[in-house]
Write a structure and sequence with these properties.
Largest sheet of chain B: 8 strands, mixed
Number of domains of chain B: 2
Shape of chain A: elongated
CATH architecture of the largest domain in chain B: 3-Layer(bba) Sandwich
Strand content of chain B: 25-35%
Number of helices of chain B: 12
Bound molecules: flavin-adenine dinucleotide, FE2/S2 (inorganic) cluster
Oligomer: heterodimer
CATH superfamily of chain A: 2Fe-2S iron-sulphur cluster binding domain, sarcosine oxidase, alpha subunit, N-terminal domain
Helix content of chain A: 10-25%
CATH class of chain A: Alpha Beta
Largest sheet of chain A: 5 strands, mixed
Order of helices and strands of chain A: EEHEEEEEH
Shape of chain B: elongated
Radius of gyration of chain A: 17 Å
């Protein structure tokens, strides 16, 4: 379970901009405008952002700062955006990408 | 066409931007993150004088200074490639291409991955990811975590997580696998910790740092370590135990922890399961140098600096005309050193652009980098100064080789 930190003992509260609604895999959630998609999803207790293209295993953030590309999602039909770098906006439609067909591998399994 | 483009709005880039713009140059700073400050944003630790180094405040301050100096700062924009065409550097983003005579790479550092079985499960993240989630975005990475990897960054971030009300149940070693020998070897790790010992409020480590100096005592120290470990900032640190596997179905549910021999080998039958909902991997930092590599900069591997660094001189010039480096791309150090390096790079670019009378200030700024390094509360690598010397020597060798006889 994840939650937001509202009363940090040292750091000042962050300016939370307006609360917005967005869709993730067709379901509606709430987050704060301008925060990274990955943070908004984690605050909604969602860790799985995509399924590995080949194995189908679930993946979430790893580096959280744009280096590893583990957090790729589709936003308003644009593919391959990094959820840790992309700021949340009102009405965003976010989709986790899934397994892709692997025709060569499948062909090898039955032919080689 | 800009006079100067700076890639990276971290402490090095922002300080360079303010410095050059204040000399009257037209400056563009580009960063792919949504906030300026780079990895400084997530930093939070107590200074020796008891005040806090608050990365968000420091970042805002640097951003304001760069802004007021007239530098243009463009966030949320990734640089995909750089290329020299004649005297002009071309800087490519997804949408636009920018041009400049002086290009500063201030791209910072990245975390080395350190694979552990099960590490692709959602809930496993780098220790820096947990730092950013917690301190910058104020979302808890989870309720209860285990940190794999015992090093200065892991220890500092563990204390930050605790401060924010996130439980860290343990700092442990990764299992030795041939690739990670230094990080998995209890004796080596103890050596590393001894160098940050003065930062640890735990009396145990502080005392330990006195009597554990000679190697034979270290051997004893490790063997005598209670298997239950010791506590640093109240968090159990295990140098005799290693995580052998991360468990969970769709996400992290637990780790398997086993006792290891002083040489790092697992003792059969000692495995225990520790439940947790997130795991951090602390594999250490290395300079993020891809853009310098595509530009064709000569590199040198310097372990003391965290990996391959583009060769550069004290004025932060690389071997390529009009290409400069500052900050962690030149070696892993704290943000204060990055800020000081940014000043030198900024002055050098202004001087090369034709601003007169900066020679003394450049010399002075180079000394200030040294002083800042000497005063740093801790070093990511204890021999960082030796690393800097190696770069200087390699630079001079290269220059000498290029001189016509
Ligand atoms: C995860 C992590 C945690 C750290 N935590 C600490 C800590 O707690 N204490 C400490 O003393 N030091 C810490 N450091 C070390 C840190 O690197 C330095 O303290 C300091 O921030 C370095 O400053 P910099 O300006 O060189 O780079 P950074 O602060 O890393 O800034 C570089 C900037 O460049 C941007 N960038 C990189 N590549 C591109 C590109 N291709 N296109 C556009 N933008 C790009 C990045 O988004 C980033 O904002 C940490 C480093 C990392 C990676
Ligand atoms: S988590 Fe690594 S790029 Fe987003």
């Amino acid at each position: 379970m994840s939650e937001r930190i509202t009363d940090h003992p040292v750091l000042d509260p962050i300016e939370r901009k307006k609360e917005v609604s967005f869709l993730f895999n067709g379901k509606s959630y709430k987050g704060y405008e301008g925060e990274p998609i990955a943070a908004a999803l984690l605050a909604n207790n969602i860790r799985t952002l995509r399924y590995h293209e080949e194995s189908g295993s679930p993946r979430g953030i790893y580096c959280n700062i744009g280096h590893c590309f583990e957090c790729r999602v589709t936003v308003n039909e644009k593919q391959g955006l990094r959820a840790c770098l992309t700021p949340l906006k009102e009405g965003m439609e976010i989709q986790s990408s899934g397994m892709l067909p692997t025709p060569v591998k499948e062909w090898r399994e039955t032919h080689v | 066409m800009y006079d100067v483009i700076i890639i990276g709005a971290g402490p090095a880039g922002l300080s360079a931007a303010a410095t050059t713009a204040n000399q009257g140059l037209e400056v563009l700073v580009v960063d792919e993150y949504m906030k300026a400050g780079g990895r400084l944003l997530g930093q939070l630790y107590e200074e020796p004088d008891g005040t806090y180094w608050n990365g968000i405040k420091e970042s805002n301050h640097l951003y304001e200074r760069a802004n007021q100096s007239g530098a243009e700062i463009k966030l949320g924009t990734s640089i995909l490639n750089i290329e020299k065409s004649g005297d002009v550097w071309l800087v490519y983003t997804e949408k636009d291409t920018y041009e400049t005579s002086h290009l500063l790479l201030a791209t910072g550092a990245a975390e080395s991955p350190s694979p552990v079985p099960g590490w692709t499960l959602p809930g496993v993240m780098s220790v820096g990811a947990a730092q950013v989630m917690t301190n910058v975005h104020r979302v808890k990475p989870g309720k209860r975590g285990v940190i794999i990897g015992v090093n200065p960054l892991a220890a500092v971030i563990a204390s930050e997580l605790q401060m924010a009300g996130v439980e860290v149940t343990a700092l442990t070693l990764p299992q030795m696998n041939g690739l990670n020998e230094e990080a998995a070897h209890p004796k080596q790790v103890m050596n590393q910790l001894l160098h940050v010992a003065h930062m640890a409020p735990s009396a145990l480590i502080r005392q330990g740092s006195k009597w554990m100096k000679p190697s034979i005592m270290q051997d004893l120290g490790i063997t005598f370590y209670p298997k239950s470990g010791f506590k640093m900032w109240g968090i159990p640190v295990h140098l005799r135990k290693a995580v052998t596997e991360i468990l969970g179905d769709e996400k992290v549910a637990a780790v398997k922890l086993a006792t290891v021999k002083p040489n790092g080998d697992v003792i059969e039958g000692t495995e225990e399961i520790i439940t947790c909902d997130f795991v951090c991997i602390a594999g250490g930092l290395y300079p993020l140098t891809e853009l310098a590599a595509v530009a064709g900069c000569p590199f040198y591997l310097v372990d003391e600096l965290g990996g391959y660094v583009p060769l550069h001189n004290e004025r932060m010039e690389t071997a390529l005309d009009g290409l400069y480096v500052a900050g962690n791309i030149t070696g892993i150090e704290g943000a204060k050193v990055a800020i000081a390096q940014g000043v030198t790079a900024g002055l050098t670019m202004a001087s090369n652009h034709g601003v007169q009378g900066l020679k003394d200030r450049i010399e002075q700024s180079i000394e200030e980098i040294e002083q800042t390094r000497d005063n740093a509360p801790f070093h990511f690598h204890p021999d960082v100064k030796k690393g800097k010397q190696i770069v200087q020597e390699k630079w001079e060798e290269m220059m000498a080789a290029e001189q016509p006889l």
